[in-house]
Structures are given as C-alpha cells and as structure tokens.
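ugh ok fine here u go
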Amino acid sequence: MTITLDQALENIYASLHNENENLDTHIAALRSVMAANGTKSIEVDTQKLVQPNRQGRKMMQSYFKKRGVEVTFASAD
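structure:
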C-alpha cells in the first residue's frame, strides 16, 4: 500500500499525540514517500505538535535528522 506525503505526516502527528507510539515506523514510511517524490525536507505545522515551543521543535528536528529527515516549520519563530 502506497501512502501520500500528507498521509505520512498525519500518521506522524497522530504518533506524537500518542506518546510517540510507532514513531520510528512512521518516520521510515515518510522517508520512503519523500524518496519516491524526490523531496529533501518536510514542512511541519507547529499547531499540530504536542510541544510546539522552540524546545519541542528543536527536539523534533534533531530526532528526525538522526533518522534522515530534514524538518522545517510552517510558523517557526
């Protein structure tokens, strides 16, 4: 089953709200979709994050970068 970039992002948002349940699996799926689309980074909506402050954004960027996904934010400070 092939998922879209939007579906992969929604799965990540849901995982973040469920105490990071299956987060690494969803990141791997996101990476696959990004590779298929030739995308190098994703833009994340900070309003959908559990911890949308600067610390939360930096933690997310670091975690995702270690897994090969560059994260930018739609409404970053």
